[in-house]
Amino acid sequence: MIVLDTHAWIWWASEPEKLSSRALAAINYSRAIGICPISCWEISTKVAQGKLTLDRDLRVWVQQALARPGVALLHLSADIAITAGQLGRQGFPGDPADRLIVATALHHGAELITKDKTIRSFRQVRTCW
Asked: How far is residue 109's CA from residue 106's CA, in Å, rounded to a whole number?
């Protein structure tokens, strides 16, 4: 399994040319692609703030992006939430959404597809870009 950071999910679903060739190959060869629920919130927030424009209604976009083969909306468990809360003590400076996404990847032992340099510099999570 791989987990997609929010921007990687958006780009894969709408603008795959924005993904690195390595990230796109990892997605294409993965049988299971995990999406953290906080990514739905991040997309909704960016649309509401006018920072992101989708080519269709938000709910339709999310439903269709989640319906792609191999994609699963992962459960946000208490263990993931606790891990996310503890990442600051482990030196991860990311915002709460980033922490939840990183914690989700860690929980599932999954590689995280992200362009985010802060996340990629955190050595406890395997990343690909």
From this structure: 5
Segment 35-75, tens digit of pLDDT: 999 999 999 999 999 999 999 999 999 999 999 999 999 99
Q: What number of CA atoms fall less than 13 Å from residue 15's CA on the CB side?
A: 10
Which residue, among 45, 42, 39, 35, has the nearest Cα to 66 in the 3D structure?
A: 35
pTM comes to 0.94
* 18 DSSP assignment: G
| Maximum alpha-carbon separation in the chain | 40
Query: Rounded to whole angstroms, how far apart are CA atoms 80 and 56?
Result: 31
